[in-house]
């Protein structure tokens, strides 16, 4: 497998601990929410969404796409889709919304131009991302979606000013976000029943994804150190 660009994941151990700490806080908040009657609110929201009929998933997908374009984190929205629609429909709705949002961000980045995107993403980081995406195209986008070494929104806007074809970008995005989407919608779909096996399966999947990202970050950092050492010895 082609490795992501060097320098993409500095201090991977620290990043992993931060993510695990955030996950622990979210789980604690979720437990408190359920214990204090949050399921009643969830039931009311579900009833409202059900009243929209077939337009419910459509409205959610549109809102999700706009949220992605506005650089908002999607994990909470993804879990919400699972809580509102269940795993199969919720995951499908998120895949449509996230891919559409990624496509909108791609087009917006091309319209805004590289200088504007560089101010947001950082010139150095954008240069590394640009070189990797231009060289590997579909494979690069797929790897970066599966292993979140760059934030989702940075990839969206960075790809828009890189030399990657839109068709490759969109296809790799749709495929690469499937594992995370299934895990988070499964987690959200288990909110109404904290004792269900599905909740623990989803949590296990979340830990696997986090561990995979941590391992990949360490691998990238070690390769970066090796390359730097080799270059310095020449």
UniProtKB/TrEMBL annotation:
Q: Where in the cell is it found?
A: Cell membrane
Alphabetized UniProt keyword annotations: Cell membrane, Membrane, Transmembrane, Transmembrane helix
First-listed, main subcellular location of the protein, grouped into a coarse class:
membrane
Q: How does it sit in the membrane?
A: Multi-pass membrane protein
- Does this entry carry the keyword Zinc? no
Pfam families annotated for this entry? VTT_dom
Record's keyword annotation contains Nucleotide-binding: no
Q: Where is the VTT domain?
A: 72-188
Q: Where are the transmembrane segments?
A: 16-35, 55-72, 84-109, 138-159, 166-187, 199-217
Q: How is this protein annotated for GO cellular component?
A: plasma membrane
The record's family statement is: Belongs to the TVP38/TMEM64 family.
| Stated name of the protein | TVP38/TMEM64 family membrane protein
